[in-house]
Amino acid sequence: MSTAAGATANTALANGAYFRANNSAPGSRATGTDAVAIGPSNVAGRNRSVALGAGARAINGQAVSIGAGNVASGNGAVAIGDPNIPYDSQPP
């Protein structure tokens, strides 16, 4: 896909009928393979991780973080709400 076509596609997505974005914070980062990060300052840091909200972080593989300030740090961990921070750890 050419740069012009990519820019047109991105503009169409950002201005579509069912999606709007208004953001003044730093953008999101999806650094893992097949990772998705949507919202300001989000991080989907490992393979197949998902971060959605504002400042959500899905740190390990297949982790899902939804909501403002949530952190899902365990492999396959899920955090939903404002904020939740589950960790992949054994009880004491």
CATH first level: which class?
Mainly Beta
Count of helical regions = 1
The second-level CATH architecture is: 2 Solenoid
In which order are the strands of the major sheet placed?
Answer: 1-3-5-7
How is the topology of this model organized?
Blueprint: H1 3-14, E1 29-30, E2 36-38, E3 43-44, E4 50-52, E5 57-58, E6 64-66, E7 71-72, E8 78-80
Folded structure, characterized:
With 92 residues, this protein is of the alpha/beta class. It has a single domain (24-92), classed as 2 Solenoid (Alkaline Protease, subunit P, domain 1). 13% of the residues lie in helices and 22% in strands. It has 1 helix and 8 strands; from the N terminus they run αββββββββ. It starts with a helix and ends in a 12-residue tail after the last strand.
